[in-house]
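for the writeup, i need someone to sanity check this before i put it in the appendix. the sequnce is what the collaborator sent (i think, or maybe the updated version? ugh). structure was predicted straight from it, no edits. if anything looks off just tell me and ill rerun, i have time this weekend
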Amino acid sequence: MNRIPVFIVIALLSVSTSGIAAEQPEVRAGKEVVTRNFSDPLSAQFRNLSIARGKEKVRLCGEVNAKNAFGAYVGFRRFATMEDTALIENPADPPTLAQATLNVIDSLCKDATPVVGEAST
């Protein structure tokens, strides 16, 4: 009789560590907004995801890395979504604009809570 509970525990552990998790709808929608204008949206990798909830708006915050038109990864860059718009850090911006972008991202994401169980993809 002890084999059944052990089997159930093993099965649950293997499912929870398999990396197959249902993605939250807010996360999926935010990722689509971020990658909408990428050269290769399927190459996008996300990490440090968090969600900020406003009155009626949900913002996805985090870092994204994707391939450019030459097929090279550009490096992780901070981002924040606002409805159907994504604000993404661009190191090629002049220093004043780059700092202003980061300040806006910080402001949008200040009350964000980490996304639990999200694998970096």
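The radius of gyration is 18 Å. The first strand starts at residue 45 and ends at 53.
thx in advance!!
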